[in-house]
Here is the input.
Amino acid sequence: MTFSLEGRTALVTGARRGIGAAIAAGYAAAGAELILMARDAALEDTLEAIKQNGGEATVITADFADPAAVEKAAIELARTRQIDILVNNAGTIRRAPAAETTTADWQHVIDVNLNSTWAVTRPIGAAMAERRTGKIVTIASLLSFQGGVTVPAYTASKHAVAGLTRALANEWGPAGVQVNAIAPGYISTDNTAELRADPAREAAIRQRIPAGRWGRPEDVVGAAVFLASSAADYINGHVLAVDGGWLSR
Here is the structure.
């Protein structure tokens, strides 16, 4: 039962597909009730996966490019629901050389990946701290450790997410709230579609991964369940790489 999420309510952002959808389904299988926050309500596949895993979910809509709208939705959730687990998964990427990255593109990525993460986490985390219990899991990136190429805003946002994880762990840890992050490696999702479509880049990336393959969204689920469970009660402020061994090369 150490890894059970039975009786807990989990809020997962950006759960329409990819890693967020996989985590939502995994949490349902572990016994959690789900609240999904997404840009729109078109979450049929995720909802069906949750149902098949014996769970149920509520959908809340908010545009993560609009942190003020996200904050409003999060404040209302914190007021009306007891959120035991928060998974900050919503994210985006825009690829261009730094000299060609527009201010609009920079701001869009920072708003979605960082500012909206803060907008959700502050009210939900504060309520957890007041109750003296809770788990926060944020999806970081290998680019929380590395610089990457042609993704300056994404890299900046993911470094910031790792720093925010540690800062909040320091503040809320004494109140019984564990704040951690997962840094997925190269996973087959929409964000990596452009890389996988380039034969040279795809091969170069895959050949560096000791596991010998790109990750799947499901590869992240075990770590997400672990960090949300009582098995991780003494883990705080950690960024856990789930990368097939990429960082070891």
About this structure: The CA atoms of residues 103 and 158 lie 18 Å apart.
